[in-house]
Every structure is written in structure tokens, then in C-alpha cells.
Amino acid sequence: MKAQAYVLEAFNEPLTAREINIPNLEPGQVLVKIKAAGICGSDLHIWQGEDPRVKLPMILGHEGVGEVAAIKGKKLTVEGEELKEGDLIFWNRGVSCGHCYYCAVLREPSLCPNRVVQGINIATTEPPYLNGCYAEYIILQPGADIFRVPVGVDPAVLVAASCSGATAAHGFDLVRPEPGDTVVVIGPGPLGLFAVAFARAYGATTVIVSGGSKTRLEMGQQFGATVTLDRHEVQDEERRQVILDLTHGRGADLVVEAAGNAAALLEAITLVRPGGAVLSMGFGQPGGTFAFDGYQHLARRNIRLQGVWVSDTRHVYRAMAMILAQPELFARMITHRFPLARVNEALEVMACKEAVKAVLMP
Fold first, then answer.
1. Kind of pairing, strands 2-8 and 16-21?
2. Are 94 and 108 in contact, with CB atoms under 8 Å apart?
3. Number of domains the chain is built from
4. Distances in whole angstroms, Cα of residue 41 to Cα of each of 47, 49, 51, 249, 352
5. How high is the mean pLDDT of the chain?
6. Among positive and negative, which fits the CA dihedral 35, 40, 46, 48?
7. Cis omega (within 30 of 0) on the bond before 362?
8. Which residues cross the membrane (predicted)?
9. Is the dihedral of CA 88, 136, 156, 192 positive or negative?
10. Within this chain, do residues 18 and 70 fall inside the same structural domain, yes or no?
């Protein structure tokens, strides 16, 4: 039996359709027929050759929901349910080793140096070959943490929970706003929209979203933003003044950088109040540098600067719960759906930011 997959063979070139033999499963592996695969912002950076973790040739796609087609041995979900063929499932994209210092001592599997992510750091030349979601099928690793999807849920609505949703959940696990706080989110893509939703869920009263896409800024309002700032119309110093005016001259209690570039991080540092916190969760790959003044930017103002690297199963669970609590809201994030054969068009639509979220429906 063969499966069609779309393979990245050269950076900045269209993905190539390939037929890949489906191998016999090893113990613990699960063959999944993909029902929905998200086009993540990270996929664009991988496609453009900006992610140093990538091994070519590779099937892109690390956000997936699918139906169990076959299982080798007994396999349980995170909730302890036994998987069976035909189940609709969702999984944590990363598989950590469980035994290194970061996994076993710090209990921070997102930092595991042996962490494997299908669609990001496994070539299609490596077993089990079907290692990404831009395909008809994927074979999940034996260590994958799996959730059963409730009956009636649109698979497309859940895909973003495994990456942008989980990363946002990780960030708010590290730094949470207090009820009544003012939170600024820089970057209104899917990651920023999840940040808005989490900020409101944790009690932030004022949530300000800054970005350059009117469509995404309008979406930010639907997710709970109370103020939106179009960076093409409101310049840097004007944005800072708006935030100072809203906070009695202090600055924001928490600023979330969700854009993944140096300019956004520098602006985040300038917008936070003394004693506040900056969450930098947008850097999935190198995004440039800036001149950092340890005295003026950090120590003198006593701010907390917190990086966020990927996520673990706990965060996937929280993002999934967030979506399932308000699926109609998160369905609005999905502005474009494409059949698998139009994957290159889907990438282009995301690259030009015409889409908020594009999803492949194989």
C-alpha cells in the first residue's frame, strides 16, 4: 500500500508529490489517515530554509488530526482509553526521550535535546518514512501522546492547538497576568490570537493587539482584544503613547511577543512597565538581533524577560481544552481550506498573510 505525500526537496521550491510505501508497523506505532493538517507559520520558515533543524528531503506538516487506520499492539490515550481503528485522534507533535536531565530532573520535556518532531526534524528517508502531515497518512512514533477527539468536532478546528495553541499555553504557564492587568500582544497571527484568548481567560481586563494585517487585527477583536493598533498607520512612538495613556503612564503589565522578529521583541521591552514581564514566544527560528542594554532595558526597570520554547503534552491538553470550550470562535481562525493537492497554493496564501490560518483537508 502506498500513500501520497508532498515532500520538501529544495528550499523555496514547490513541494513535490511522491508516493511512499507504507511499511509494516513497529510495536507502538499508529498509522493515521490525515483528516486535517494545519499550515503553520513555522512551515513557511522551514520551506524558506530558515530553520536549522530541518533535514531534507522532508514531508512538511506538524499539525494534524486524523483517523486511526492501524495499530501495532495496545495503545492508550493520555486519558487511559484504549485506541481502536476508526478513532479520530489528535497528538502532541513532539516526542521527548523521557530520560535526559531536562525530561527526568527538570521535568521540562520541551527542552529535551533528543526531542523528535515529525514534519520538522525527521527526513522522509528515515523510518517510518511517513514523517509529516502533508500526506494522506502519517505513522506516529511509539512515544507519541495521543488524545481521542470528541464526536462531532471539526478536525480542522483542532490542528492549531498542537503548535501555536500549545506554545501560547506554555507561555502563560510561565507568566500569567493578574485579574485587571493590561496585556499587549505583538503579532496577530494564530499564536497571537491564542495569546489573546489565554490573556482574557486569566483575567486581563485590557488586551491590546498590534500588527500589520487588518484581517488579523479584526480577528483579534473577535478573540477578545479591547484595542487594536495597525502598525502601518500607528508608528512606534505613537503605539507606545497609546499604551501609556491606557495605563496611567506606567506601561503594560505583560507584553507578549508573538511575531518572531527582533524589532517586535525590542518593542515589547519598551512597552512593558517597570516590574512587568515580557513573554517572547514567536521565535521558532532565528529572527534577527538588536542592541540590548542590560541596564536600561532590563535591570533598571526590574522587568522579567521570559523566553518560550515549543511545548509539551500538558500545554497541548490546555490548548485543546480552550478550543473545545468555544469551537465556534476558533473555527473563525480558519479562513482557508485546501485539498492536499493544492498544498503549494496554501503555502503561498499563508506566506502573503492573505489567510489567518490555512488547513489542508486530504
1. antiparallel
2. no
3. 2
4. 10, 13, 12, 35, 11
5. 96
6. positive
7. no
8. none
9. positive
10. yes
pLDDT, tens digit (0-9, with 9 covering 90-100), for 308-329:
999 999 999 999 999 999 999 9
Instruction: Render pLDDT for 53-82 as a digit per residue (tens, 0 to 9).
Output: 899 999 999 999 999 999 999 999 999 999
pTM score of the predicted model? 0.96
> In terms of C-beta density within 10 A (0-12 exposed, 13-18 middle, 19 or more buried), how is residue 78 classed?
middle
* Neighbour-count burial of 180, counting CB atoms closer than 10 A to its CB (0-12 exposed, 13-18 middle, 19+ buried): exposed
Residue 296 DSSP label: I
**How many Cβ atoms from other residues are within 10 Å of residue 248's Cβ?**
9
On whether both 133 and 22 belong to a single domain, the answer is yes
Share of the chain above pLDDT 70, in %: 100
Nearest to 110 by CA among 163, 70, 55: 163
Sign of the CA dihedral with 97 first, then 136, 80, and 151 last: positive
- Judgement on whether residues 154 and 29 belong to the same structural domain of the protein: yes
Give the residue-averaged pLDDT of 158-171.
97
Do 142 and 187 have their domain in common?
no
CB under 8 Å, gap of 24 or more: what pairs does 323-328 form? 323/157, 323/158, 323/160, 323/161, 323/165, 324/150, 324/153, 327/153, 327/154, 327/157
- pLDDT confidence of residue 217: 97
Q: Residue 64 sits in which domain range? A: 2-163+311-360
- Alpha-carbon gap, residue 255 to 328, rounded angstroms: 27
Are the C-beta atoms of 66 and 86 separated by less than 8 Å? no
pLDDT digits (tens, 9 = 90+) for 218-251: 999 999 999 999 999 999 999 999 999 999 999 9
